[in-house]
Amino acid sequence: MIKITLPDGSIREYPVGTTALNIALSISEGLARNVLAAKVNNEVWDAQRPISNDSTLQLLTWNDTEGKATYWHSSAHLMAEALESIYPGIKFGIGPALENGFYYDVDLGERTISTEDFKQVEDKILELAKKKSQYIRKEVSKQEAIKYFTDKKDEYKLELIEGLEDGKITFYTQGDFIDLCKGPHLPDTNNIKAVKLLNIAGAYWRGDEKNKQLTRIYAITFPKQKDLTDYLTLLEEAKKRDHRKLGKELELFMFSEMVGGGLPLWLPKGNILRERLIAFMKKLLVENEYQLVTSPHIGNSILYKTSGHYEKYGKDSFQPIHTPNEAEEFLLKPMNCPHHIEIYKFKPHSYKELPIRYAEFGTVYRYEQSGELHGLTRVRGFTQDDAHIFCTQEQVTEEFMKLIDLVLKVFKALGFNDYTAQISLRDPNNKTKYIGSDEGWNKAEKAIIDAAAAKGLKTVTELGEAAFYGPKLDFMVKDALGRKWQLGTIQVDYVLPENFSLEYIGADNQKHRPVMIHRAPFGSLERFIAVLIEHCAGEFPLWLSPEQVAVLPISEKYHTYAEQVFKKLQSVNIIGNLDDRDEKIGRKIRDAEVKKIPFMIIVGEKEQEENTISLRRHGKGDIGSMSITQFITLVETEIKSELEKK
RNA sequence: GCCGUUGUAGCUCAGUGGUAGAGCACUUCCUUGGUAAGGAAGAGGUCGAGAGUCCGAUUCUCUUCAACGGCUCCA
User: Fold this and answer.
1) Domain residues for A19?
2) Are residues A595 and A521 in the same domain?
3) Separation in Å: B7 C1' and A7 CA
4) A510-545 pLDDT, tens per residue?
5) DSSP letter at A354?
6) Per the domain annotation, does A251 fall within a domain?
7) Which of residues 455-484 of A touch strand B (CB under 7 A)?
8) Which of A94, A165, A277, A615 is the most buried (most CB within 10 A)?
């Protein structure tokens, strides 16, 4: 007998060679039906794999990330089986699970697959799933593995096998399909009840453009038909919220071929969003003892050669600008930091002045590859809510804690309540990618970890994700649809102060090197607004709304009164429009609703006589009548509560 | 940058080897209407750009640009 420790700490005894599935069955039949895989001694295993030693065991179901991953990975195998039966001789690359669904890279040879073929593949997958084929794990020698795939003429799998250690190679078989795979897999295919092929895309074998391009087929499966329907509804909803679509519909921003791809033009309404976000941030900056500075859009290349960016990114940037006579070289500003460094160097600094915090809404330009441009989230010119903090080593952790507070305050005011922080550290196996001393890096990494811990942040740590000049703390928010976005960032930098020989005079009357912190709570205004649009589906918080109110006169007779109301609102900075078109009220209301204007004020005979307004709320309908003053108070109260959310 | 798809009116889209159509928006007129589309008429397009095939190209071919879906990249 062996001892199995369950997550609740209880220990049960089972015969040697029992499986997670059997153990689940011993607890309850329902549980056994839902088991997709199991964590045995913290390693994800097949639920049907024999356990021969004392172990800890956690059963994994659809509610566990690893359970889902196993489910989708097994689904990828099933899709491969379906594809192989439809397209005999097809070759397979890799077929991993994703956060939502899975894909398989295939080499179809001369054939092609298109969305019209999806139905056939989906039907085949369901047909195979119904056979309830078991996923059978088999350990094979490297020689056997090579022989199998040589016979099958699958050079991709052979290449994968080459990189594997003999004795650690396993095959999984379900139905007629055998795949090289380390697993784990579902007990059988019967769990896969609903499938949808999502799209096809080209993908280079092993992500290298020198290699052959394979066809990547994305799909998703579910244990219940309803889950699939829900997922497809979610995709629809995401489409409706797409900031590119809403940006056009709500007249927030545009792109022009004449101006160039990735260079957004802000329309008047979108610009109000920008201005309000900037005003909001400036207020926070003043409260947090930042000083605003301004730097030009181009800088001498010496600046970026000194910073190290030129060497690292110069060849991928926009081409330098050359002067006609003096043979000088300028770069479009790709970041603000070197400029702020020069501002720091304007005069010597005492330790008593530190930390010095220079902030700027600086527009920077980066050459993004044409295929990478995407709405406002990936552009070639964007405005950072940038600041650089110059402080002593001792001040780093405290500054970091203040910055975490600042970022969180911003998130709360904008309704991003679900966030995590990612600590990005060096890849310990590839230190050459980074510049700066080991000592500096170690200190910086520790400062971030300490500050995040002191603030009780929910964090994940990623090795190898640091910037080349220093580690960073990035904030990921989850939007209303549960999608993750990276927004704010805080980065420590020991390299630039070194490259620019920054100094301050310490209490000991000696020169010391300050530490620099880069930070941007929004990240970039463009990206932030894109995420915000999708998060709130274009229904902005009242304080940000570019059109807070629409004043709708019932007919021409009440235009004068409507105008009085409108002017009164304008005088207290409540913005919007006066709809004096020759249309019926129903039409005016509809148009205001479609534009997602938070408040509609309807004025006619009754209102004019009583000197009141009739109020309607977007999405909610008629609220009733009140005085203008009451309405103004209502708006001001709501804005105040939005901005002061804790 | 690479692969694939797409490009027709301001927007959303239909359509064709014989120089184009709908709905909405727009303009004018009628209507002065009380909580999600009142009615009529009108105007609007080198069919993304360039080249080729053809008697003739928006339609077929090539090139190019842009957008979209991916890949690679991201200070």
Assistant:
1) 2-61
2) no
3) 57
4) 999 999 999 999 989 999 999 999 999 999 999 999
5) P
6) no
7) 467-468
8) A277
